Write the structure tokens for this entry.
Amino acid sequence: MRGFPKQRLCERRGVEDAGHRAELGQSCPRGCSQMPWTSHPMERIPRHKTFSFYFRNLPKTNIRNRNYLCFEVKGKEQPSHASVHRGVFQNQVYPHAPRHAELCFLSWFRDEMLSRDERQHVTWFVSWSPCSTCAELVAQFLEQHRNVTLSIFAARLSYFWDPATRQGLRRLCCKGALVDIMSLQHFEYCWERFVNKKNKSFKPWWNLDQNYNYLVSELEEI
């Protein structure tokens, strides 16, 4: 799996410490509440059509306002199969306070899974890449918990033209996260492990590979 060269991203001009903009209680520019809150993940996305709609890797779209986060947590000091935990989070919406899926995961992970001593690797497959504020909070989490590593594979890039969003992704990489675009293999992997597919096979949509190449080029420019 390909990923960003961390050193190049860290050395790009304009990377600043934006910690003062992401303290708990400050709202995300996209309306994401950061107040302490914990939910529990779904085992799978209930409908296969939901996955195909919300994970479709369109370069630009403004009609997909839900964000799904499929995760795996692996303990590095234990046998791989026995220590894998999987689930799905969705962004929290009305009537609850708005909350992005990344922060739903962090709240749950801190309460239920985080180890002080064991090395843990977390993998996210997300329908949208993190917004600037979520990226900053995740970067802070990785800085505070050096035993946790994170790989993020995004179906689409959220506001990739926005300077604050671009800076947030660079900061994630500077804190050791791998940020990449979901390829056909990632969609197939998620289909098998995170979707209630009802014995249906994954059918790639038109332009999947072309969209992937476009998003990779945009990500590399960040």
Remarks:
- The beta strands are 68-75, 85-90, 120-126, 148-154, 178-181.
- The two ends are 18 Å apart (CA to CA).
- The first strand starts at residue 68 and ends at 75.
